[in-house]
Amino acid sequence: MRGGDVRTGELFSYVDLEDRVRKDHPLRAIRQIVNDALVSLERDFAALYSPIGRPSIAPEKLLRAMLLQAFYSIRSERLLMERLEYDLLFRWFVDLGIDDPAWDHSVFSKNRDRLLDGDIAAKFLGAIPRRMGLHLRGRRL
C-alpha cells in the first residue's frame, strides 16, 4: 500500500532526544567524558561570569558545540547554528532542548571568545585526556 504524502497535522509531538540517539553511537561515550570534564571546571566557570547582567550561553553548551564544530569540520559559526537548528544528534550532544532555538551566530562567537580569552577552552581540552584515561581504565577492552 502506498503511503500518503499529506501530513496529518498532529497538534503536539513529544520527541525524547535520548531515544533518538543510537545506544552504540560514538558520541555517547564522548559526551560522558566531556560532561565529566565540564564538572571539573565548575569553579572556573563561576569565576569567569558575573552574577549580574544578561545571561550568556551556558559555557558547558558552548564547549560541547565547539567540539561538534571540530568533529564534523563545520567551517563557520553560522553553519554550526544552522546545524543545531535541525540536527537532533547535535541538539542532544549540546544539551539543547527540542523546542529551544539555536543561538545567533554572532552571540555564539562573542561568548566563545570569552572562553578562549579566559583560558577555559585550554583547561577543558586538557581535562579531556585525563577523563578519557579514567573512562578507558574502567572499561574492559
Automatic annotation (TrEMBL):
Originating organism: Rhizobium meliloti (strain 1021)
Record-annotated Transposase InsH N-terminal domain positions: 16-114
Listed InterPro entries: Transposase_InsH_N
Keywords associated with the record: Plasmid
Protein name: Transposase
Taxonomy, superkingdom: Bacteria
Any one Pfam family match given in the protein's UniProt record, by short name: DUF772
